[in-house]
Amino acid sequence: MSETTAERAGIPATSDELARLDYFEDLRDRYLSLDGLDAKWHSFERENSYPSFETCMRLHYFMSHTRAVEETLDSAFRSGHIPGTAYFARGNEAASVGSASCLRDEEWLVPMHRNCGAHLVKGHPARSIMAHFFGRMDGPSRGRDGNFHIGYRPKKITQLISHIGSMIPVAAGIAWAEKARGTGRATLTYIGDGGTSTGDFHEGVNFAAVHKLPVVFIIDNNQYAYKTLLKEQYACKSLILKAPGYGIPGFLIDGTDILLVRKICSEAIDRARAGEGPTLIESVTMRLAGHSVYDKYSDYVDLENLRRWTNERDPLERYDTFLEESGMATIEEISASHARARADAETARDEALKSPFPDPATLNDDVYAP
Amino acid sequence: MGQITYRQAISEALWEEMERDKEVFLYGEDIGLGGGAFYITKGFQEHFGRDRVVDVPLSEAGWTGAAIGAALTGMRPVIEFQFADFVTESFKMIVDLAAGNHFRQMGPVPLVIRLPGAALVSAGPFHSQNPEPWFFGTPGLKIIAPTTAYDAKGMLKTAIRDNNPVIYLEYKKLYNYPVNELPDILRPDIPSDDYTVPFGEARTLREGEDVSLVTFGTTVLQALEAADILEEEGVSTEVIDMRSILPYDKEAILRTVEKTGKLLILHEARKHGGISGEFAAVVAEEAFEHLDAPIQRVGATNTPIPLSPPLENAYLPSTQKVVDALRELAAY
Ligand SMILES: Cc1ncc(C[n+]2csc(CCOP(=O)(O)OP(=O)(O)O)c2C)c(N)n1
Ligand SMILES: [Mg+2]
């Protein structure tokens, strides 16, 4: 058996290795799968997962657009255009775009507050997101809500409430409806490392596992829950170890590598569509900025760790390098994609700022559905 | 003696109670290393250690239940919700488990539930709520709503020494409110010695003859501003800060109604289903013959809390809305 074939089949991971697991060192070009108590390392054979040029550039555009939209929103906040607060997800672009790009139009996306990229790639226009942040009428909530408490029904993107964990059972329920109707559609949802500690997470994943529902759960493990460290959040070595407890397959992946995210998520989504039940994917990233625009990250972040993730695991830079080194795209094509992504974000901002504020006379509208 | 902010008052009360009683400890998200979202417990973990200032996982229902367990053994947990809105996660633990425990003869539950609540400029539907109406109908709970630094400190100490579950409402808007911008009546000197403020006693902030204005929480500020404006128009308003909602000072409400014959009740929470309904009912039951005008209420509109400024302003009570209501009452 050649080495690559063996790696494709996986190399058993020892319990010793799992006990010493390091999110930064141990996920270089490989990922871990868990099927029951069977843990295996797999090398990521990127050459076998090259998408077409069009797909490569589409993923590139949306990652870059995500970053540009969030940076544009950040400066809009500094200039006083955002009432309230704002959460951004620098570092999570590959995880959000790579996963949600696997969904079909008719499938539901159940995002959390760090999934701007998932919104954009699923078709939520940046100007709608921005109008929402600016408290304007052209945002999907018509000024009733703000920040990433946002959904977009025309593209089958649910809203979320702030209470973390709540959307996990809701995603399971959407998957229930798909299964009950026999649509063959999958549902995709996310949760933070902090969110996995909620009762709702447990109840939702267990429900989906018991009923073999067509849903994929992605844990966006960005190493912080606000200011809380991972070791204060859970005592196991990796959250993926929860998967066998629910009786579903689990994958531990580097969430800054968009092609890997896409490969693992599309396989999981295919399994869901085929009626094989849910999958739990732990996608490891680092929150490259503070929790919110008000957060003083430097008060508590491990600067050395932040430095190495910023330098070596910035999803956007990694993908630029990959495209260029693999010969998939030229430097000119890459910078044109960046330029378009940014220009589109800025146009979206200008349009959103033209949207009117809600009329106070509409306050009492829509408390009840007609 | 001195003057401190509302936030410092809460910090000092926690610190002094933890020094005084080794059974007092804190649970909350980000309260240790990070000092909490509002920096109430900044520096606490270094001093009291990780066993008494506990950074908990993101699982409110779980650590509320754990706090109740510790309280059953005689410890005195003080738990911090990052925002009052998230207390819905722990509803069952508080309402069904903690609140009725003593009545069921299963022992006291000395637990303090700190809830940073109320609006704070476009904080949106999930970071602005007033949770007291959710709990008001639950016997066995106490609900406290201090607005001055003096009351915040003294009432938090009372809460920690109380043998019942106490819902302690904190007003985010007041945390860092500059002391020198507060009306004098809202900044009494803080004694350097240990002191407590009892529950169930309202405080008269301003004596008046023509109209009574009963309130609690941040609307105390609007009440005083409105009373100033009415004063210039020749109307004398008596302003009462209830401070404590459960138990509440029924006598203080009845007394002021007997004096002025006209009552306006004001709070930030929605008028519909708000605490003002109970206050009004008590007056209707026990002081009807003293009323010279229908009881009036000002509170938020009966909609969810919207975020965008024009909607939020329309939703919330304001000094102008209070002034309008007072004028109408005075003219009745
Ligand atoms: C039930 C609940 N408790 C507390 C909060 C306040 N809060 C907002 S985000 C956050 C941290 C979330 O961490 P994590 O789940 O890891 O997601 P991340 O923000 O890191 O993406 C907290 C504690 C909340 N939104 N919901
Ligand atoms: Mg996190």
CATH architecture of chain A: 3-Layer(aba) Sandwich
Total individual domains of chain B: 2
- Quickly count the helices of chain B: 12
Q: What is the CATH first-level class name of chain A?
A: Alpha Beta
List keywords for this structure.
heterodimer; A: 370 residues; alpha/beta; Rossmann fold; two-stranded antiparallel sheet; 14 helices; 12% strand; B: alpha/beta; seven-stranded mixed beta sheet; five-stranded mixed beta sheet; binds thiamine diphosphate; binds magnesium ion
Can I get a quick summary?
By secondary structure, chain A is an alpha/beta fold. Chain A has helices at residues 3-9, 15-19, 53-78, 93-100, 116-122, 126-133, 167-181, 199-210, 230-233, 242-246, 258-273, 303-312, 315-325, 331-354; strands spanning 11-12, 30-35, 38-43, 109-110, 187-192, 215-221, 224-225, 228-229, 250-254, 279-284. The model of chain A has no long low-confidence stretch (mean pLDDT 96).
Write up what this structure looks like.
The complex is a heterodimer of chains A (370) and B (332). Chain A has 370 residues and is of the alpha/beta class. Chain A has helices at 3-9, 15-19, 53-78, 93-100, 116-122, 126-133, 167-181, 199-210, 230-233, 242-246, 258-273, 303-312, 315-325, 331-354; strands spanning 11-12, 30-35, 38-43, 109-110, 187-192, 215-221, 224-225, 228-229, 250-254, 279-284. Chain A has one domain (53-356): Rossmann fold. The model of chain A has no long low-confidence stretch (mean pLDDT 96). Chain B has helices at 6-20, 44-48, 60-72, 91-98, 132-135, 149-161, 172-175, 219-232, 250-260, 276-286, 309-315, 319-331; strands spanning 24-28, 53-55, 76-80, 112-117, 142-144, 166-171, 203-206, 211-215, 237-241, 244-246, 263-270, 296-300. Chain B has a seven-stranded mixed β-sheet, sandwiched between helices. With 332 residues, chain B is α/β, with parallel strands linked by helices. At the A-B interface, strand 8 of A face helix 11 of B. The structure holds thiamine diphosphate and magnesium ion (MG).
